[in-house]
UniProtKB/TrEMBL annotation:
Species assigned in the record: Nothoprocta pentlandii
Domain Cadherin: from-to ranges: 6-105, 106-214, 215-322, 323-427, 428-539, 536-664
GO molecular function terms noted in the UniProt entry: calcium ion binding
Transmembrane regions listed in the UniProt entry: 664-688
Family annotation (PANTHER family): CADHERIN-87A, PROTOCADHERIN GAMMA SUBFAMILY C, 4
Signal peptide residue numbers: none
Name of the protein in its database record: Protocadherin gamma-C3
Keywords: Calcium, Cell adhesion, Cell membrane, Glycoprotein, Membrane, Repeat, Signal, Transmembrane, Transmembrane helix
UniProt key word DNA damage: no
Lineage of the species this protein comes from: Eukaryota, Metazoa, Chordata, Craniata, Vertebrata
Top-level taxon: Eukaryota
Main location group: membrane
Cross-referenced InterPro entries: Cadherin-like_dom, Cadherin-like_sf, Cadherin_CS, Cadherin_N, Protocadherin/Cadherin-CA
SMART domains hit by this protein: CA
Length: 691
């Protein structure tokens, strides 16, 4: 939407410009709630809006001549921006000229030297008056005071200026009157009109009575801007019918030309060639009117004037400019498509098609440009964003004009995505297994549970905790045995484990991030307790007290390999640590008795003789296979008596031969064979792999 107002310059501060609420057809309260903002294209804030009334007012002094110079029309542009939703309204304020500047001559007095033989109709340019106003308020006419010899001619220039000339209407006679005093009045068209005066003193000279004459009253030329220094503009030609020095002509730029024009062009005084000596820029000036004078070398000299109009042709020498009106370098990753990121103003100093600008961004980016109106674009999000995939964008905005060849300008907008907590922490493994030896040290680290969260900062700060698995024995509360460091995930033992009490348990580890609300995840940890050789073998048969021995009776007619008795022991450990061996370490008669290594059976190895002792003491040691091995000793006393049985003497020996004992021994042997087999298979697999 675009609204236009018209006001005169030099209004007082607070002066009424327009009612934006009324002109937009909206309620004032809605404008105030929509955070109405005024954005000006210029450096100064000439206007302000009262959000409570919707009235636009003048906030700074507006001088049309300072803003727009001699341009016939003067505009100030501003934009109104409102939020929810974001809308822009372009306001164009035309500044009307008031007659606040009178015409002014460069000087209040001027002197002219004119030969008495000057031809009738000769023209004598006078420095024109300048009026900063425009339109009817600018300089409109000149008036010359009454006199007998001169008339006033006003020459209209192509740029609208009026160039006064004195025209000789009646021949001069120095002897009759040597000095003439005239008054030239410049008057504008304001109401009421304003004016200024110049006093002209004309001194009538004698002698050289022919002035130079140009072959054309005016010359024209066209040059492209940026023409190199030394480029020929035009070659002038003037002639003087006088002879000698009075007919020798010298060319020069008239003093009426501005200092800026004199820096732009130079003329050869001998040849009359005008050449470029400065940088021509179409954007600074589109046309130059050069006033040239030709003087002869008579005494006094005579001169003639002509004008050269130089039209500058525009070339595409200005790249477009990209100006950020509004920009936020950070953007939440959950921003919806269509969110406004930046408001961009573009401009090109060239004219016509060369000054038209098009903008675009790469289609590979999740952003797009929307053209709001001429010279303004909005940068919007095109799709949903994901900071974990791409956290930073360099959005390159390319602006190119319609020239041939086109010129372009690129502006890079760095955009950082702000994280939101949209990712659940993930464990490195679906579940964990831990093998820990019993009798572990309190405080030892069993395992480190690790999870990752692709979010950032607080949203990625993880904390760990231990939870009991649902449906498990409440007596196996994992927090009783274990603790977990809340940030590192290190699981430590609070108590030593006992394989003989617990061989396996499981628990959950829960991880939660620091977002709001926090996101959580769980993993299952299996803990296997490994046995250690921490239990010595226990002798279950024969039952003996401390520092006592078990007695057995045999007949003197017992022959080998009769079974005397059997030592039965058990080990609370498992595996190899419970694999027992029996050893006869001391005997009264070495070689008379033997103990089976694995079964613990004690047998007589030879027939008894008369000289053998009647009582034999045997020390049997039961040893497990752990590292280091643990052992238990038992002392047996074998009595040789006539009335004793030949074998399995005593009720204790008979109990030792009961049916349950061989099964235990068989179980231990089978376990040892299986362990050895698995070890051999694993060793063979390693050998095959490395071969």
């Amino acid at each position: 939407a675009q609204i236009r107002y018209t006001i005169p310059e030099e209004l007082t501060r607070g002066a009424f410009v327009g009612n934006i609420a009324k002109d937009l057809g909206t309620d004032v309260a809605k404008l105030a709630a929509a955070n109405l903002q005024v954005l000006s294209d210029s450096d100064s804030q000439y206007f302000s809006v009262n959000v409570n009334t919707g009235i636009i007012m003048v906030s700074e002094r507006i001088d049309r001549e300072q803003l727009c110079g001699q341009n016939p029309r003067c505009f100030l542009h501003l934009k109104l921006a409102i939020e929810n939703p974001v809308e822009f309204y372009r306001i164009e304020v035309e500044i009307l000229d008031i007659n606040d500047n009178p015409p002014e001559f460069p000087s209040a007095e001027v002197s002219l030297r004119i030969y008495e033989l000057a031809s009738l109709g000769a023209r004598f340019p006078i420095q024109p008056a300048q009026d900063s106003d425009v339109g009817t308020n600018t300089l409109q006419t000149y008036h010359l005071s009454a006199n007998d010899n001169f008339n006033l001619n006003v020459k209209a220039r192509t740029d609208g200026g009026k160039f006064p000339e004195l025209v000789l209407e009646r021949a001069l006679d120095r002897e009759l009157r040597a000095v003439h005093h005239l008054v030239l009045t410049a008057e504008d068209g304001g109401s009421p009109p304003r004016s200024s005066k110049m006093h002209i003193t004309i001194q009538v000279l004698d002698a050289n009575d022919n002035h130079p004459v140009f072959d054309k009253p005016s010359y024209g030329a066209r040059l492209v801007e940026n023409s190199p220094v030394g480029t020929l503009v035009v070659k002038l030609n003037a002639t003087d019918v006088d002879e000698g020095p009075n007919g020798d002509i010298r060319y020069s730029l008239s003093s009426h030309n501005s200092a800026a024009l004199r820096q732009m062009f130079a003329i050869d005084e001998q040849t009359g060639e005008i050449r470029v000596q400065g940088k021509l820029d179409f954007e600074e000036a589109t046309v130059y009117e050069i006033e040239v004078e030709a003087k002869d070398m008579g005494s006094p000299t005579m001169e003639e004037h002509c004008s050269v109009v130089v039209e500058i042709v525009d070339v595409n020498d200005n790249a477009p400019e990209v100006i950020l009106t509004s920009f936020s370098s950070s953007l939440s990753e959950d921003a919806l498509p269509g969110t406004v990121v930046a408001v961009i103003h573009v401009r090109d100093k060239d004219s016509g098609e060369q000054g038209k600008v098009q903008c675009h961004v790469s289609p590979d980016l999740p952003f797009q440009l929307r053209k709001d109106f001429e010279h303004q674009y909005s940068l919007l999000t095109r799709t949903y964003l994901d900071r974990e995939r791409i956290a930073f964008y360099n959005v390159t905005i390319s602006a190119s004009d319609m020239g041939s060849p086109p010129l372009s300008q690129q502006t890079i907008l760095p955009i950082v995505l702000v994280d939101v907590n949209d990712n659940v922490p993930q464990f490195e493994q679906a579940s964990y297994e831990v093998l820990v030896a019993e009798n572990n040290a309190v405080g030892s680290v069993l395992i480190t549970i690790s999870a990752v969260d692709p979010d950032s900062e607080q949203n990625s700060r993880l904390s760990y905790s231990i939870l009991q698995v649902g449906g498990t024995d409440p007596g196996l509360d994992p927090t009783r045995y274990l603790s977990i460091h809340p940030t590192s995930g290190r699981v430590s033992a609070k108590l030593p484990f006992d394989y003989e009490q617990t061989t396996y348990f499981q628990f959950h580890v829960e991880v939660s991030d620091g977002g709001s609300p926090a996101l959580r995840n769980r993993t299952l940890v299996h803990v296997f307790i490994a046995d250690q050789n921490d239990n010595a073998p226990q002798v279950h048969f024969p039952k003996v007290g401390e520092d006592s021995a078990a007695q057995f009776r045999i007949s003197p007619f017992t022959y080998p390999p009769a079974l005397i008795t059997k030592v039965v022991a058990m080990d609370a450990d498992s595996g190899r640590n419970a694999w027992l061996s029996y050893h006869l370490v001391e005997a009264t008669e070495p070689g008379l008795f033997s103990v089976a290594l694995r079964s613990g059976e004690i047998r007589i190895m030879r027939a008894l003789q008369e000289n053998d002792a009647s009582a034999h003491e045997l020390l049997v040691v039961v040893r497990d296979s752990g590292e280091p091995p643990l052992s238990t000793a038992v002392t047996l006393v074998v009595l040789v008596e006539e009335k004793g049985p030949e074998a399995l003497q005593g009720s204790e020996a008979q109990a030792a031969d009961s049916g349950g004992l061989p099964a235990i021994t068989l179980y231990l042997i089978v376990s040892l064979v299986l362990i050895s087999t698995v070890s051999l298979v694993g060793l063979a697999a390693l050998v095959v792999r490395y071969l």
